[in-house]
## 1
Amino acid sequence: AVAYKYPPERKETQVLAIQVQVGRTGRLTPLALLKPTLIAGSTVSRATLHNEDYVREKDIRVGDTVIIEKAGDVIPAVVSVVLEKRPPEAEPFVMPSNCPVCGSPVRREENEAESRCTGVDCPAQLFRHILHFVSRDAMDIEGMGPALIQQLLEANLIASIADIYHLPERRADLLRLERMGQKSVDNLIAAIERSRENPLDRLINALGIRNVGREAARTLAAQYDSIDAIAAASLEELAALPDFGQITAKSVQQFFAETQTKELLEKLRNAGVRLQGASQPQQRGDELAGKTYVLTGTLPGMTREEAGALIIAHGGKVSGSVSKKTTAVIAGESAGSKLDKAIALGVPVLSEAELHDLVGE
């Protein structure tokens, strides 16, 4: 048997413009708008340019004559530029410094090829941001899944994360949505109302700060008593937090410095969402002073938040990651990689009952 693979057909065309699109994750992607050209059985009028580095490496400019092909006989791609046909006025491509959709600053992290919009309420990213905001580890708004979020956006019932908290006032509009009966609407409204009083760490996680996950959110909530206090923290203070460092600290500081972030937080405040943490647990002893614990898995008699509060109330600290400096790992059911790392490092592993024994409660 013999298989033949022929080289893809290539043709010349002209770059009429370079348009920058913003995806659901905030990634900015340059797109070449081409003079329509018939190639491999269809007319091609656009081709993705992937990222800023790709455009620079090939030196693609508006007005250039370029060679195009269909990668895999499917995806249009710019192969090269015909330099001898370049018009004298052609200028090098520059990635915009502000998002073309919402106007927020565009940031490209060191050692990354992707440029991203920093807007927390950018319309291009709104679906993804809301999906994360309402998720179980974030604000935990039960019943608000992808299908409902899409319906709410299409019906113009939400145009910002903060609009979630105005949905209880629009019960009649919710009832008109597909598969939303009275009980479903009542349950959704109840879940939204409950989420207004969520612990501070849930809100921090829900905001989707780059490099800040659930454990880092808990660290911030344990150190600061409000969103405003976190926003006012210096880079040095943030970098000194357990398991943080310069990269995470910089992400936090940059996030809260953005105009869109400030506007969103003010909307959430006006909507009655709690931006303060619960009062710090009253000190009940110093049995765990100078010791650091990591919580993992599902504990049988309390939540991990409650276990963390118990440790803090007895002078201990709670960390989000295991290291040689960790005193012990408190593990429950379905413990994952943290338990594995503790065993590998020889860090003691304790149960919830053993934690109670340590503090005498």
## 2
Amino acid sequence: HILDPTTPAPPSDLPSVTVLHPSAGHADPAATALFAAGPQRWRQVAERLGVACVLVIDARLRGQVTAAMARRLQLSGRAWRSRIAVV
């Protein structure tokens, strides 16, 4: 149900976006916007939306996490720790 505005097709570069925010009414549309923004632009969009806690997983199962989200994560296993970068 989400389309990339540049290709009118579903984005495939970020199969997973997680946003933590005190308001679910803000977190849900923010996650959708970050998903549509894609791997190159999600950080800029998150900043504009005032979203500090974000985890994105790309198509290669590599993740990027904001510093605020990294403080809240407990990754299980060494494999995941090596796949997640704090940005």
## 3
Amino acid sequence: MLLSSFSSMPLEAKAVRRKKISNPILWVVLGYLGFILIGALLLALPISHQKDTSFLDHIFISTSAVCVTGLATIDIGTTYSHFGHYVILFLMQIGGLGIMTISTTLILLAGMRPGFSHQSVFLDQFSQENLAPTKVLKAVLPFTFGIEAVGLIVYFTQFKEAEIYDRFFSALFQTVSTFCNVGFSLYPDSLIQYGSNPIVVITSSLLVLAGGFGFLAITELPNLFSSKKKISLHTKLASLVTIILVVFASCFFLFMEFGNSLENLPFGEKILAAISYGSISRTAGLNLSQFGMLSSGTLLLTTLLMFIGANPGSCGGGIKTTTAAVIAVLGINRLLGKKNTMVFGRTIPQETVNKAVYIFIIGVIVIFLATLLLLITENGNAPYTDTGIQFIKILFEVSSAYATCGLSLGITSELSSFGEVVICFVMFIGRLGPLFLISAVVSPNRDNGIWYSEENIMVG
């Protein structure tokens, strides 16, 4: 019946029907891929680089910039020319704001109105409320460029070793990279040379936290000082988890590294290093200290912090702080014998709980498979006692790529061509999110209505 009625439709009606069922999420995925390819082609131009390098390296750098990761197979400061640095700067800003933000802005500037599906996908990235895209953009864009302007001024006053224009561009590049949680730097040692500069350390930490805090959480923070407006459960959880992670990570780092990597530093610089670690290690690949000198316990904690990542609707990656919070709350409620997932006097919908579990499981699977592939391709069948890229380094690299963090133990440039491709895929999956990518190719509500009888199994 359905097939015959569809066959009898005019050609125009079929076209309309096909247009209605098109998946807008797929266009977002294609948009990211398009910017990555365009960025790689621009970086491959003779005007963009000073040293010859492979096209795969250009693909890698472009992917890392658009996916706001910060991993690099080459030194971008010396490899690329000034034009190439501008290309990377543009890609980082695009990646930080997001393809939906850019496309929505262009549509509105052209005098057109985004479609319903477009608006729905756009709002899913920034807010739980049914707001107009123009209202969201009027909040997101001024906030982004305002924070970046402050960062630009501060960095400009501190980067004193270069000429005026080079100082300005270095400050601009570093500001965009830091706020967008990318972690690229034009300096070969990242920002290690400024590790003892409190202004640079605190500014970098605040920029990273602002970029990784999320639009919804930031817009609701002023409600703390208002008796009429309430703070949503989302913002409460996101803020609480962020504070806990930053404080715990800083204290743990100071305790573990006090007599290790920080042994020869004055007490004030040790505190600065702890602050930068707690603020930056989850989401941005900035190096204000030598990560290769850290203890195994600190590296393992860093891997966990990167996996958790930043808040939803932000420039940062990872499974997100609220996802980790929901899973933790779920476990606590189940241990207490409670059927529902409750926190702060509210019950979290089961659909949200299921989504958090899916994100966690898929994240673990992606990291496991990518780590396994790299252990095979980068080390072959060498025993674990042999020299080579160690397991912890590969796990750290993959976790950093998936969380779009960008921290590395120095093996990125040692990866084979296949290893670089694997990391590119992991960065791409981590930036868009596994459920988002699955939604781009799988139609929702695929339940065929078939149910089977229950049969129990032993677990635990």
## 4
Amino acid sequence: MVPIVSIVGKSGSGKTTLLEKVIRELTRRGYTVGILKHDAHGFEIDHEGKDSWRHKKAGASTVALSSPEKFAVIKDVKTEWPPERIIASYLSDSDIVITEGYKTSWFPKIEVVRKAHSTKPVCAGSKELIAFVTDVKMKTRLPVMGLNDYRGVANFIVREIIRKKGTFPTVSLVVDGSPVPLKPFIDDLIREAVTGMIRSLKGCSDACDIELKISRKTKRGNG
């Protein structure tokens, strides 16, 4: 699993503004940044009249668009995918994944608190909370950075998240759509067994990033 940190806070606290500046700063330093934003109210990215929109309206459950520079997937889901599944599927090649939201996840969290909006943290007491970004004088033992100190936030993310990559699991296991936490010895066992077998295959001796998906679904008949 790629290193992950969540930027959390109440709506209007300035999360997106901070995140935009932090992304630019980390990218300037040479890091590849993946972003996952949670939208509890739903969203629409397709445009009426476009080929992908027409395919979707015709009944396709998944529409993928690909070009030499990028690809996109529009997929119906019966239940919301957990962030671990999205990250493992699409963001695992990043040096750091920053999520906006996901206040109840296990990810380390940096909370933005802006005095003009609210002085009460939403994640106070959470063991995953690792720092504050705020213009409020906080009574806390956690690190506190200013609202405009995007370089300080970037430094903190590099020091406490990216450089501590070894503290994150190296194997992502998703079973029937739900992430399964692995104990360290199981993580090691799966990684070593799969990596050993894959590297024995022709052309795979230097494999570093391996994706394996096993499906036990039976094929439907043509009748």
